[in-house]
Design brief:
This protein is an alpha/beta fold. 31% of the residues lie in helices and 25% in strands. The protein has helices at 36-45, 53-56, 76-89, 111-118, 120-125, 155-159, 191-198, 222-233, 260-273, 297-308, 341-350, 354-368, 379-384, 393-399; strands spanning 2-9, 12-19, 22-24, 63-68, 97-102, 127-130, 139-144, 150-154, 162-168, 171-172, 176-177, 238-244, 250-256, 274-277, 281-287, 311-320, 370-374, 388-389, 410-413, 420-423. It has a 6-stranded parallel sheet, sandwiched between helices. Strands 6-5-4-9-12-13 form a 6-stranded mixed sheet, with helices on both faces. A two-stranded antiparallel sheet has the order 1-2. Helix 13 links the parallel strand 17 and strand 18.
């Protein structure tokens, strides 16, 4: 097979020409559905395990709408004006609406970034609160989970009479799926809350990650179950979660009860983002899907983790990720000072740090596979992380140890951040 295509890279593309035993790995295409606005309006009127949104809002209620930050693509510019209008038509004044940007432990946002999320009209009409996980005076303690996570949440959320969580549902590499309860933890939680919850990724009985912590896993996944229990302590009145296609267009969604609607959305996400494969490849060439999915190293780790599921141990991954935002954290790169993943894990078990766990995932993949990385990062930074830098795809293919044999199987994964390869029958 001969492939001549463009792969997303930042806000542009890079050309790829390759032939041989080559296959595209993408989720099954779906026929076009209703227009996005109709999908969203229908979720308000016919939610799951909940009366219609307009029927459960009391006029005059102080209302909090939680939305994802600039590192997530959710379709907020489409659904947020519709959501605000629905709330206002239920009798809530715009001055009683607060939009909370769920930054997790990410940096604060610039005005232009906020406008990109909510739209200029909404930004000028309602209060916007950017969550700060380390600002103690803006956090409220609400209880401790059975696994020992002390739960502190954003005060604007806690002070609201009516609470709505929004976001999108995709696979998540240790919470199983995004969306739903993840708007609470890590979305609007304190740093201590987030770290205590994320510490549950490790197997308490032996070295390594808990056996139930992987993409698509919910039942028995301690991270997910702790997130859900935390949400029970301060439950939202409604969730609105979108399902986007690989190009970021709203194609489906769920609304209603935060637990039951989210679970239904996870089933829809599995159908949307799973890509069946019959065998693992010798070489995988993957793009994150462009900006903002390849904004920084912390974001692109999700793609690296996803596509590593499609390559044989000892195989090669060629990864395209511009990383215009660099590492994504000043605390990321130093984790690669540890001589091996085992040493890094021992440190993380004593004092968990999400950037450290992200780095540990990169270490483990690079130990098993040759990873060739096309990015804007300095070559010495790429090498420190255990990867080989390349200036273009032609150079990357020349460096690949698994592109020399005509019998080698190559997969092209154009939307790596949201595509989860699954072996047939799994």
């Amino acid at each position: 097979m001969k492939i001549d295509m463009e792969l997303a890279y930042g806000k542009g593309t890079l050309p790829l020409k390759i032939e041989g035993r080559v296959e595209l790995v993408t989720p099954p295409s779906k026929p076009p559905g209703k227009d996005p606005a109709s999908i969203i309006k229908n979720l308000f009127k016919k939610p799951l395990a909940s009366p219609p949104l307009r029927e459960i809002i009391r006029p005059g209620s102080k209302t909090a709408l939680v939305v994802s930050d600039h590192t997530r693509v959710t379709g907020s510019k489409v659904f947020l004006p519709l959501l605000v209008k629905e709330v206002e038509e239920a009798g809530v004044s715009s001055r009683d609406i607060t939009i909370i940007i769920a930054t997790r432990m990410h940096r604060s946002l610039k005005r232009g970034e906020i406008e990109d999320i909510v739209g200029k009209d909404i930004m000028d009409a309602v209060e916007i609160a950017v969550h700060d996980a380390e600002k103690e005076r803006d956090l409220v303690y609400v209880g401790t989970t059975s696994r020992g996570t002390p739960v502190k949440l954003n005060k604007h959320y806690m002070e609201a009479h009516f609470k709505v969580l929004t976001g999108s549902i995709v696979y998540h590499y240790f919470a199983g799926f995004g969306g739903g309860r993840k708007s609470i933890i890590p979305g609007i939680a304190s740093r201590d809350t987030i770290l205590a919850n994320h510490m549950l990724v490790f197997d308490p009985a032996r070295e390594g990650v808990h056996p139930k912590v992987y993409p698509g896993s919910l039942e028995g996944n301690p991270v997910h179950e702790d997130m859900l229990e935390s949400t029970h302590l301060a439950p939202p009145d409604f969730i609105l979660n979108t399902i986007l296609d690989i190009k970021g267009h709203i194609v489906d969604g769920v609304g209603g009860n935060y637990e039951r609607a989210h679970l239904a959305g996870c089933h829809k996400a599995k159908e949307t983002f799973s890509a069946p494969i019959k065998e693992k490849a010798d070489l995988v060439i993957a793009s994150c899907g462009g900006h903002p999915k390849d904004l920084n190293m912390i974001q692109i780790q999700k793609t690296l983790f996803n596509v590593s599921r499609a390559v044989k141990e000892g195989g090669t991954i060629i990864l395209l990720a511009e990383c215009s935002g660099g590492m994504g954290s000043d605390r990321f790169l130093h984790w690669f000072d540890y001589p091996d993943p085992g040493k890094a894990e021992k440190v993380l078990r004593k004092k968990f740090e999400l950037n450290g766990f992200t780095a540990l995932s990169v270490m483990n993949i690079c130990r098993k596979n040759q990873v060739i990385f096309l990015s804007q990062l300095p070559d010495e930074t790429v090498r420190k992380m255990g990867m080989e830098p390349a200036k273009n795809l032609e150079e990357a293919l020349q460096k690949s140890k698994n592109n020399q044999n005509k019998a080698s199987l190559t997969y092209i994964i154009p939307w790596g951040s949201t595509t989860v390869p699954l072996m047939t029958g799994i």
